[in-house]
Amino acid sequence: MRTVDLIQKKRDGHELTTDEINWLISGYAEGSVPDYQMAAFAMAIYFRGMSTREISDLTMAMVASGEEIDLSAISGIKVDKHSTGGVGDKVTLILAPLVASFGIPVAKMSGRGLGHTGGTLDKLESIKGYQIEVTQDQFIKQVQDIGVSVIGQSDNMVKADKLLYALRDVTATVDIIPLIASSVMSKKIAAGADAILLDVTVGEGAFMKNIEDARQLAQTMVELGKAVGRKTIAVITDMSQPVGTSIGNRLEILEALEILQGKGREDVTEFICELAQIMLGLADVEKTVDEVRAHLLDGSALQKFEEMVAAQGGDLEDLYRAVRVSHQVPVLAQASGYIEALPALEFGLFAMKLGAGRAVKTDSLDYETGIVFHKKVGEAVEAGQKIATIYANENISENMLTNFQKNVKIGNVSVKTKEIIEIVS
């Protein structure tokens, strides 16, 4: 076979065979297919798409390009969760220990943030001493011992996906369903869980901007999971505004702790309890949302989170400390009315400029900086009332503050929001 022939075949709208996809992906992982040819192939997929069978073959070829984690030593149904990304998304920090508090093993490998999207690993690393790199044996033993672990992905897993994702990021081929679905599901399948919950975000702060694309991505990934014997459900969730009240690594840890203590906002608490109910159902444990919430109120979920942090080297005293920044800048409402929009993308980019996110993968983070919102969409506000606080280690210019205020849309209508838009199973 020749790579150029496969590029041309896909460019002209034809399906590749299973052998052709396997040959191309294994060659790319081994280095015989260069970046420039794989970039051309990715662009051909961008414009021509892939059939369901091609996407499945691509996914499994990427799984085969690295090691697979064997979780069979852990008893019970192992569950995992993945989000397609967003702003202020601290859901895993609460959801993993909450589900584990019911005796269901949660063995999760997470990623870092890039651009306006935050990464779970970055948030956990804002806790002094927390180790995201552990051996496979340590990972398995921790889940056996306390029921939960959240770590970074092994360098030996899905090698082809790592290479291809980095290439897509710089060739404008990130936001295409076959490549998103195969990237997500190759990692989830290789990570070894028995059941997978997929959080497919949609809206201004997500990869998927409209419900039709989100639905197609969700359905594709659910089918990929089921095809290899993994119980898989997707939820389509709103990412038009940030999740919860905070954006920023340390700030999101603190908000997660509030929710784990049963003191979080009602909307985000209800959302996470609904997700936990679905994850528990995947493990054949049927609970009501109220029964799930009880584990936030009685401290069970918080205890499990503390156990995980301590097991992975985290300092429990540091866990609860306040942020350390030189500037806390209040943002005041410019008019009275109702918050009609808090554009997730704009505020994610604003937080990135504060140092809370990365423009490129090599950027360092300021774990302390970010934004806390005191008002969310649908809530009433009076002119001059504090609607947010900016946490920064550099001066916030008048121009930055003005731009922030412009992105807070205030109108005369109380907009109703709903976190879970649809369930795909």
Kindly list the characteristics that best describe this protein:
425 residues, alpha/beta, Pyrimidine Nucleoside Phosphorylase, Chain A, domain 2, Aldehyde Oxidoreductase, domain 3, 4-stranded mixed beta sheet, 13 strands, Glycosyl_Trfase_fam3, metal ion binding, transferase
Could you characterize the architecture of this molecule?
By secondary structure, the protein is an alpha/beta fold. The protein has three domains: 3-49, Up-down Bundle (Transferase, Pyrimidine Nucleoside Phosphorylase, Chain A, domain 3), CATH 1.20.970; 79-318, Pyrimidine Nucleoside Phosphorylase, Chain A, domain 2 (3-Layer(aba) Sandwich); 327-411, Aldehyde Oxidoreductase, domain 3. Helices cover 45% and strands 15% of the residues. It has 17 helices and 13 strands. The protein has helices spanning 3-11, 18-30, 35-48, 52-64, 91-100, 120-125, 136-146, 159-169, 177-190, 211-227, 249-260, 266-282, 289-297, 300-311, 316-319, 344-354, 398-407, and strands at residues 79-83, 106-110, 148-152, 195-202, 231-238, 246-247, 327-332, 337-341, 370-373, 380-381, 386-392, 409-411, 420-424. Strands 1-4-5-13 form a four-stranded mixed beta sheet, with helices on both faces. Helix 10 links the parallel strand 4 and strand 5 (231-238). The longest helix is centred in the middle third of the chain and has 17 residues, at 211-227. It is globular, with a radius of gyration of 22 Å. The model has no long low-confidence stretch (mean pLDDT 94). Keywords: Glycosyltransferase, Metal-binding, Transferase. One of its GO terms (biological process) is pyrimidine nucleobase metabolic process. Its EC number is 2.4.2.2.
